[in-house]
Specification:
- The chain is mainly alpha-helical and 478 residues long.
- Helices cover 61% and strands 4% of the residues.
Length: 478
Amino acid sequence: MLLLTCWALTTPAGGAPDERAHHIKAVAAARGDFRGRPSRIVLDPMRERELAPRSTRVFTLPAHVIDATFGCGRRHPGRAANCLHRGHARGAIDRSTYVATYPPFLYVPAGVIGRLSTDPIRSMLLERGLFALVAAVLLAGAAFALGGRGGHGFALIGLLAAATPMVLFLAASLNVSGLHIAATIGLTAALLAASRRGPVASATWWLAAASGAVAVLTRAEGVLWVVLVLAVYWLMQSVTRDGGGAASRPPVAALAVVGGAVVAVGAWQVTAGEGPGFGLSGAGGAVRDIAPHMAKLAQQLPGVFGWLDTPLPYAAYYGWYVGLVLLVGVAAFFATARQRVAMLVGLPVAAVAAVVFQSLLLGPEPLTGQLIQTRYVMPALLLVPLVAGEVLDRRFPRPSRWVLWPAVTGLALFNVGALVVHWRRNAVGVRGARWFFDAPRWSPPLGWWTWAAVAALAAVVLSAGAALSADASEATDR
């Protein structure tokens, strides 16, 4: 939660992907305008099939909460965030957004919160803060569900590995992708905990219900990820000696929450959502479009920041993936056949989903200029570390301090390092001074030193918590 706070308050308004578009959607939704009106721009028939034109609508909105140079550093990582300025327009102005056909359910409360300020930058930050708060609650719930009373060290290592800097960056931005991913992590954590042998706390089922509902209400494809996580839950159910599975069943009311979300999103898609602009006949072309960019897409899983224009040093990616392969390899060695399937099923599902999304929605990359981003299939990919941690947790319920402490400390330092890369990009640009604290061109509220202290505190809390947990486990064993 400390790290989420750092990401939320040190990213300039509009400094994360698509924030301006989501801000327009939220402001309009809070005023009861869910659909807007079609754009008058005339496009040729092929261009009209592209995702952005099909999902774009125009809204008439008050200028004082919309007019600002949001995203002024887009695709310019060498430019500091001091290009962000408030506008001077008054009255009502027309603004278009290419996320107009997204389900509006979570935009309404964000827009209502944004109305507490008449300043466009503060309004966006308030909306972002609500999204970050929801994500924080879901991720904290995931930690409580996986941790339980017994500690479950490896399960929490899996959670920390899944909550990559990219996940936290997106979750702390005004973008439903971050909520979507955080909700899927919460759902997976709750169902992994529910699949263990023994009674299941009612709070675990309600976390699963809330997470599943948020995953569905943010994006229609959330239904796909809920079904995938349910399959993982079935595969991971502890099997008793008589062949039976986990006896606990979710309460009907919890199932009704997710079912209601599915019905609501289905109704929205039928009445206002955009259909596929292209066909599956382009699947072969989609594979050819995606294949040359696999290295860049792999970078986006641990993190590429700004408008996907600020990567980490290559050594950081190598280190993260080496750790992931080690975690998954050891888990695969001790796993049962069902557990191995549960751990790895997300990889082929993510690959197929990426091809389908590219061919159906985005179209040929040479024509549209649009390429699938990892965040759209991240819910499936993050199943791998989550399930790997759970597998090891069941085999080694009390990990040694010399495993738990280095793993958690390494992940904590990786997160802080990613934050520093992101901070430098915003403070002075990626070509600016490496030590930017003394003379930044842009500073967040309270200044860089304050947030450096908060990030350091987060790393200390994680590292010390791992050490104390290991000590407690060893004392219990004695």
